[in-house]
Amino acid sequence: MSTRQKAGAIIVAAGESKRMGGIDKMWALIDGKPVLARTIEVFANCNAIDHIVIVLNKMNLKKGRLLKKELAAAKKITLCTGGKRRQDSVAAGLAKLSECQWVVIHDGARPLVTTDLIERCLEAARETGTAIAAVPITDTVKIVRNNKVKQTVPRHVLWAAQTPQVFRYDIITEAHSKVSSDATDDASLVEQIKYKVVISPGATDNIKITTPDDLILAESILKKNGQ
After folding, report:
1. What is the rounded distance in angstroms from the CA atom of residue 133 to the CA atom of residue 4?
2. How far apart are CA 178 and CA 194, in angstroms?
3. Which regions of the chain are under pLDDT 50?
4. Which CATH architecture has domain 7-133+161-224?
5. CA distance 45 to 56
6. Domain boundaries, the chain
7. Residue 6 CB neighbour total at 10 angstroms
8. According to the model, what pLDDT value does residue 1 have?
9. Which tens digits make up the pLDDT trace of 101-158?
10. Is-contact 42 114, C-beta < 8 A?
11. Percentages helix, strand, coil for the chain, rounded to the nearest 5?
12. End-to-end C-alpha distance for the chain, whole angstroms
């Protein structure tokens, strides 16, 4: 960003890993390193980020403290407990950010994010105060009711949202204070209070760990990229 304003990152890692077959995905290993550790390291190494808030469930707070100590990052890292819903966890993280004009929200389960992607999203957010990483959908999408196709949606208008998602601090706090309905991402909250959300090109490698097969895919991507 051309004028240096502080940016804080909220790494959301308080989920229940329901589709991981009993494995807590945040502590699952990818090439010998926990998923969450890989995610945090990228943000710790990003010059654009000043403060990192890691949102965990109560059961993982102790592990989180140990991980923070092991990482020994130079920048400020704060831990906090999440809420019942994802947006409750983000709100808890927002309350811990200090003196940041920009907020970068990221899924702890996306460990293959890059510093370049974070910085691109921050730059894109300057246009309207909001920007999210996203990739175009390549599959044909059908609207189905009662197992019958009702409509084929033109795929050129469809994008798959990722994180990071970047917001000016006042915008995201306003969204969380005004919108109480459930949301699967923060951009949808911001959309409901009528702010324009800009797309910043994401990355197909920026996968979210959701099932055990994703751990294998992530290791394959790391090897492909020589990491």
Report:
1. 22
2. 12
3. 1-2
4. Alpha-Beta Complex (3.90)
5. 21
6. 7-133+161-224
7. 15
8. 46
9. 999 999 999 999 999 999 999 999 988 999 999 999 999 999 999 999 999 999 989 9
10. yes
11. 35, 25, 40
12. 28
